[in-house]
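Try this one yourself first.
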């Protein structure tokens, strides 16, 4: 497939009007939508912006390649946009971007599509191609320039002789653009420096130019320019330079010089399968979220089953109570401490440790979590156990790294579980459980004894957190706080959190309905979808509106969420299911009508503020 089957006249924009990164994304998405290439502009825009959060697609030299692979793409397509004045796109070289290629790939994109997209990345690395694209006077000239450079990618031969020979692997999360640009940048610079190189590309179309055993044996060193999974075990014993994929694009000379000098540590085998490259930024948060995300199915399923059991009566699960019902007892057994809820803390701790130390950390983390749950440490003890076990096992890996190779096989099946479980267990039993248990109980007692004023203040704070970044770290921190209290039998904060999380999308939906003059027709249509997302507790539905107008939307959403959270606490509403949405409203303790009123009032506050603050749309 040729690139110009994806880049057509109707997806070429020779004069962009945008002045900012967000405007540029929206302008290019509009072209895709008008061409009928996507079914939902909001969803695709969100996918593009999520990709930008991982690392900028402004790759430098005046180029930006925003891209996403999502179900709302009907057919693989490329939009070309050109800005004469340039747009600040957070490019890697700090310079404005002039040439934009927005790539839209469907989730089921075949290799033919992906290879064409990869060739586009290769073309853009050529300075003369960029100059011709900037000088093109028409869409036909743009297509002619692309066609003149569009050639099928060929497999590289294994090389190595009198010249220095190095190998590299490039990979990025989507495997569409950065993977191939980094590969071409390394190859071009190596040729200029008189160094032979073979680069394996791990793109969406699968691995290409796969490194052979002979290649690895001959190589002086290995460069890994990747932001995702790479099979590292095959490089054991080789000097290995491990950097983000962006460095492969921007710093090829430095990397090649370092590789030729073998100025890098030898890679040591871990005895594990291919692992995902750890991010240096946000590591602790990432480990915590790994534990929380794996715990959530137990929390949600167990919590809702418990809540349903109370519909038979609050003591209907107790055989000695007059209201006893066998179904209520079954629901409580399945969802409660003997079932799903009994696994919360061990699962949390186990998966935090797994994220830190890979599979060897899982068993010590699980055991530490069980000891926390049974020894009074509770949710907080589980957090400590997960991080403790993970970092203990990392220490054990370093400690045992000098053992003879003949003992490599017993590390995973004997040494790591034996010492990891023992050390984690002793520390939890004798150093952690008692003080953390006391802290845990103190927090529970304090929350249980809050007066109305302080309870309302807590609800307001939790509401502000839920709406501040709508699914980001602050939002997740509030959610984790509420989830932990559930395990301790404190249910009111979770109700406030769930109510507040529903307000941003519901408030926006109401605003687009009752203040139509303040929103475009497209925003009004998107607002209708926010009714469904708000009622389903999908706070992220508000993100496109917040991204387009953050100074008005975010404060309005926070105000409404704070009102909902405060009212929920004032009404003394409790929620045993750690999930929001209309379907859990009947399950609350303390009156579902009052809870519904808190959500409606908070949503109305957000809608009214948006109606007052938003400027009328010019028709």
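Now uncover the answer:
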């Amino acid at each position: 497939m040729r690139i110009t089957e994806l880049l057509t006249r109707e997806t070429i924009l020779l004069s962009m009007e945008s002045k900012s990164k967000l405007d540029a994304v929206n302008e290019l998405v509009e072209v895709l939508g008008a061409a009928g290439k996507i079914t939902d502009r909001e969803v695709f825009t969100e996918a593009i912006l999520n990709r930008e959060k991982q690392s900028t697609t402004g790759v430098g030299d005046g180029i930006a390649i925003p891209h996403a692979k999502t179900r709302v793409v009907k057919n693989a397509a490329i939009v070309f946009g050109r800005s004469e004045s340039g747009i600040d796109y957070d490019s890697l070289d700090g310079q404005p971007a002039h040439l934009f290629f927005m790539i839209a790939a469907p989730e089921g994109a075949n290799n033919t599509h992906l290879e064409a997209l990869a060739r586009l990345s290769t073309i853009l690395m050529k300075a003369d191609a960029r100059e011709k694209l900037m000088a093109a006077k028409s869409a036909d000239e743009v297509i002619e320039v692309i066609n003149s450079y569009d050639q099928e990618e060929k497999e590289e031969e294994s090389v190595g002789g009198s010249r220095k020979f190095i190998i590299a692997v490039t990979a990025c999360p989507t495997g569409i653009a950065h993977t191939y640009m980094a590969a071409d940048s390394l190859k071009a610079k190596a040729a200029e420096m008189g160094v032979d190189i073979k680069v394996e590309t791990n793109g969406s179309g699968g691995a290409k130019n796969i490194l052979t055993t002979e290649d690895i044996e001959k190589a002086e060193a290995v460069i890994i320019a990747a932001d995702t999974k790479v099979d590292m075990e095959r490089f054991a014993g080789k000097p290995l330079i491990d950097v983000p994929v962006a460095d492969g694009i921007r710093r090829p000379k430095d990397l090649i010089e370092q590789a030729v000098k073998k100025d890098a540590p030898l890679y040591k085998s871990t005895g594990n399968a291919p692992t995902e490259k750890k991010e240096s930024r946000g590591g602790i948060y990432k480990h915590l979220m790994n534990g929380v995300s794996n715990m959530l199915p137990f929390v949600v399923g167990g919590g809702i089953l418990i809540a349903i059991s109370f519909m038979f009566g609050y003591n209907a699960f107790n055989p000695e109570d007059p209201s006893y019902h066998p179904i209520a007892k079954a629901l409580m057994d399945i969802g409660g401490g003997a079932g799903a809820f009994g696994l919360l803390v061990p699962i949390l701790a186990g998966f935090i440790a797994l994220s830190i130390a890979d599979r060897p950390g899982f068993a010590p983390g699980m055991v530490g979590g069980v000891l926390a749950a049974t020894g009074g440490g509770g949710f907080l003890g589980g957090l400590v156990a997960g991080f403790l076990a993970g970092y203990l096992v990392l220490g054990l890996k370093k400690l045992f790294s000098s053992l003879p190779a003949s003992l490599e096989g017993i590390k995973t099946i004997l040494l790591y579980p034996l010492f990891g479980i023992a050390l984690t267990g002793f520390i939890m039993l004798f150093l952690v459980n008692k003080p953390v248990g006391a802290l845990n109980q103190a927090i529970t007692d304090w929350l249980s004894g809050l007066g109305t004023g302080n309870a309302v203040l807590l609800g307001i704070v939790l509401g502000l957190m839920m709406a501040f970044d709508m699914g980001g770290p602050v939002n997740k921190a509030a959610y984790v706080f509420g989830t932990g209290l559930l395990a301790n039998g404190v249910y009111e904060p979770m109700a406030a959190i769930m109510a507040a999380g529903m307000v941003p999308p519901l408030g926006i939906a109401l605003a687009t309905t009752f203040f139509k003059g303040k929103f475009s027709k497209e925003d009004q249509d998107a607002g209708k979808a926010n009714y469904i997302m708000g009622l389903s507790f999908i706070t992220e539905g508000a993100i496109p509106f917040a991204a387009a107008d953050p100074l008005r939307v975010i404060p309005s959403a926070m105000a409404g969420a704070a009102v909902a959270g405060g009212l929920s606490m004032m009404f003394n509403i409790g929620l045993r299911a750690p999930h929001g949405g209309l379907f859990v409203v009947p399950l609350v303790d303390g009156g579902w009508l009052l809870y519904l009123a808190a959500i409606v009032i908070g949503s109305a506050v957000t809608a009214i503020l948006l109606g007052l603050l938003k400027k009328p749309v010019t028709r």
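Discussion: The first strand starts at residue 12 and ends at 13. The radius of gyration is 28 Å.
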